[in-house]
UniProtKB/TrEMBL annotation:
It is an enzyme of class 1 (oxidoreductase). Transmembrane segments: none annotated. Belongs to the zinc-containing alcohol dehydrogenase family. Residues 14-372 form the Enoyl reductase (ER) domain. Pfam families: ADH_N, ADH_zinc_N. The keyword Zinc applies. Its EC number is 1.1.1.1. It comes from Eiseniibacteriota bacterium. InterPro entries: ADH-like_C, ADH-like_N, ADH_Zn_CS, ER, GroES-like_sf, NAD(P)-bd_dom_sf. This is alcohol dehydrogenase. GO terms for molecular function: alcohol dehydrogenase (NAD+) activity; zinc ion binding. Its cofactor is Zn(2+). It comes from the Bacteria.
Length: 375
């Protein structure tokens, strides 16, 4: 093994990543060293590079938190076990998510909410990530990837997949009920698939016809273009919908009105978009007793939402946040994808193209997900 590796490194916030050679890390107590095969590019990476979140990343930083690779070395203290108790072995295919680690002993961790542990560390934000040929990760927090899985298609499941899967669970929606996905980007197109696999009827809202077509290809029962005067209900009438709906310019610029008219309001909504208006509109899409879960993260100064307190109270609406996923959520999310029920739409690019990809994300022009090919 060589002593150095190629990596994309952020030295100053708001500057392009530098492609350079850095030392290969050494696994510590309880860690594994992973040879990276694939790393998804997430919108959170844009926030990390631009430094527009309240808590800045640790510099210099190697971003990336949708990592699939093979274990090539074990740190001290790892006992290889098989069966129902899994400890990574050399040669195993594993995934590294955003949640690098948590303390495991606080009230949140003990209550199954390790996602909000105040002592948690984040891959590619407070710890070096997967925009590199190698990375170190705690053995207890890596996900198991089936050997017959495509590592490039599985990479986005490590963040976009598990995040939307957990958000859907946190809506409390039941099979057969309507769930609306607001924003059909890298997260949203996976959310549509998880929602269908979980038995929900799915509406998708976006401002891009290309992304709405992607949602339809993944089974969305109703699509709504939030930017046009046409209500854009481009699906065959679903149960509970109004099959005689006509063009309504007033409703067309108001996706909430379209959702209310077409399906009587949605039981649940998951917002993966980053525009503040989308979060506000999602509340108005709910039917009485409905729940909206916020997932998308706008930049600093754009994260304020206006809402009607009387509407929330009188209609008994619920607003929840959802952040990434637990280790249990991760195993379940990977299982859906490994069984072919969820499949990321991806484009593979070399590490050297990462700055161009981040620029595409800033412009909002990406359809699906981009995965860096490190193999």
């Amino acid at each position: 093994m060589t002593v150095s590796m190629k990596a994309a490194v952020l030295h100053a916030l708001g500057t392009p990543l530098a492609i350079e050679r850095v030392p290969i890390p050494t696994p510590g107590e309880g860690d594994v060293l992973i040879r990276v095969i694939a790393c998804g590019v997430c919108h959170s990476d844009v926030h990390a590079v631009d430094g527009d979140w309240e808590r800045p990343p640790v510099l210099p930083l190697i971003p990336g938190h949708e990592v699939v690779g093979r274990v090539v070395a074990l740190g001290p203290g790892i006992v290889e076990r098989t069966g129902s108790v899994h400890s990574p072995s050399v040669g195993d295919l594993v995934g590294v998510p955003w949640m690098y680690s948590s303390c495991g002993t606080c009230d949140s961790c003990l209550a199954g909410m390790e996602t909000v542990c105040s002592a948690s560390e984040a891959t590619g934000y407070t710890k070096p990530g997967g925009y590199a040929e190698y990375l170190v990760a705690p053995a207890a927090f890596v996900g198991r990837i089936p050997e017959d899985a495509d590592p490039y298609e599985l990479a986005p499941i490590l963040c976009a997949g598990v995040t939307t899967f957990r958000a859907l669970k946190r809506t409390g929606a039941q099979p057969g009920q309507w769930t609306t996905i607001v924003g059909v980007g890298g997260l949203g197109h996976l959310a549509v698939q998880y929602a269908k696999a979980m038995g929900f009827r799915v509406a998708a809202v976006d401002v891009s016809d290309d992304k709405l077509e992607l949602a339809k290809s993944h089974g969305a029962d109703l699509v709504v273009n939030a930017a046009t005067s046409d209500p854009a209900a481009r699906s065959a009438p679903a149960a509970g919908s109004n099959p005689t709906a006509t063009s309504d310019p007033a409703a067309g610029s108001n996706p909430a009105a379209t959702i209310q008219r077409e399906i009587g309001g949605t039981h649940a909504a998951v917002v993966t978009a980053v525009a503040p208006r989308a979060f506000e509109q999602a509340i108005a899409m709910l039917r009485p007793g409905g729940t909206v879960v916020y997932v998308g993260l706008p930049g600093a100064g754009q994260d304020q939402v206006r809402a009607s307190i009387s509407a929330i109270t009188n209609r008994e609406l619920s607003i929840r946040g959802s952040s990434i996923g637990t280790r249990g959520d991760l195993e379940e999310a990977i299982s859906f994808a490994a069984r072919g029920l969820v499949r990321a739409t991806i484009r593979k690019v070399p590490l050297e193209d990462v700055n161009a990809v981040l620029d595409e994300m800033r412009r909002g022009t990406l359809v699906g997900r981009v995965v860096l090919d490190l193999e």
